[in-house]
Design a protein that fits this description.
Elements (H helix, E strand, L loop, with lengths): L3 H15 L6 E4 L12 H5 L4 E7 L2 E6 L4 E5 L5 E6 L8 E6 L3 E6 L6 E5 L24 H8 L6 H6 L9 H11 L12 H20 L39 H4 L3 E5 L2 E5 L6
Antiparallel strand pairs: 1-6, 2-3, 3-4, 4-8, 5-7, 6-7, 9-10
Helix pairs in contact: 1-6, 3-6, 5-6
The chain binds a DNA duplex through helix 5.
Length: 278
DNA sequence: AGACGTACCTGACCGC
DNA sequence: TGCGGTCAGGTACGTC
């Protein structure tokens, strides 16, 4: 499911449920998600108050009163639902956080999600976080940082942007949308992006992510907000999942050009406009 | 070192 | 209706 805007939407939805609240108990309905849950996971969390909710790339970080952080990745299909505490289990409910009145349930059909505990001070060296690139909506992400991240790389620009070491939080949808907004071909070699194109791309990445967060993310299959409503950004896609359709503001003869094109790059669908993306 | 394919899972959808 | 094939928003890992 989720790229940065969806994870940020989930984070914002969790704030009123979790911030300042105590997690009374944690129940695991299986010992693993993508990887085994760490030893003592439930016990370490139980009884703690959640002091803050952060996000790093596509990871959620729950800050607990005792200094521990809970690291959570939603994988492709992970979601949180807030349920009456007595409610029966749904299929694929794997982890239950008992909040007293309600139970916050982590449901993940494909089980590509992950959870881990991070001891105080251990975040920078955590194996899943240590190589992660700049946070795209922070001041640390500048056109020059982006340009240097792409420098010398022979991978297609699309692949380089999906690589979380280049910039954190982009996935298949928002890479496609950002490349369209920047007018850059996904096939272009990453190292061919110099200062001027990096400036455009930097601007496009931020604009697309901010607009998507504003819309509550994109709901295609799995992503729903905690209040049960869908994100709306899928209605604003310029190219993603729009094969054969005209791109926004297009004046081409679509019957002749075929409109938005779909191709496969490193095994994944890429959508782009061959006319406006070079 | 860096790029690529493979693997991990389930469910939805399509054509037969 | 049922079956097999394909695809899906992620990413670590092995291989070259």
């Amino acid at each position: 499911m989720p790229e940065l805007p969806e994870v940020e939407t989930v984070r914002r939805g969790l704030v009123p449920l979790l911030e300042g609240r105590r997690i009374h108990a944690v129940t695991l309905h299986r010992p693993d998600l993508r990887w085994p849950l760490p030893q003592g996971f439930a016990k370490a969390i139980a009884g703690n108050v959640v002091t803050a909710l952060d996000r790093r790339g596509k990871y959620l970080l729950w800050r607990l009163q005792d200094g521990t952080s809970v690291l959570i990745h939603l994988g492709m299909s992970g979601s949180f639902r807030n349920r009456p505490a007595s409610n029966v289990r749904d299929k694929h409910d794997h982890v239950v956080f008992d909040l007293g009145e309600t139970a916050l349930v982590f449901n993940d059909p494909r089980r590509f999600g992950a959870m881990d505990l991070i001891a105080p001070g251990g975040e920078a060296s955590h194996w899943l976080l240590k190589a992660m690139g700049p946070e795209p909506l922070s001041d640390a992400f500048t056109p020059d940082v982006l340009r240097r991240g792409l420098e010398g790389r022979t991978a297609p620009l699309k692949a380089a942007l999906l690589d979380q070491r280049t910039v954190a939080g982009l996935g298949n949808i928002y890479v496609a949308e950002a490349l369209f907004a920047a007018g850059l071909s996904p096939k272009r070699m990453a190292r061919s992006v110099g200062a001027a194109r990096a400036e455009r791309l930097h601007c496009a990445i931020r604009a697309v992510l901010m607009a998507a967060i504003e819309s509550g993310g994109s709901s295609l299959r799995d992503h729903i907000r905690l209040d049960g409503t869908e994100g709306l950004f899928q209605h604003r896609f310029a190219v993603y999942d729009r094969e054969g359709q005209p791109c926004p503001g297009c004046s081409c003869d679509v019957a002749r050009t075929g409109g938005v094109r779909r191709m496969v790059q490193s095994g994944r669908s890429t959508f782009y406009c061959p006319t406006r993306q070079r």
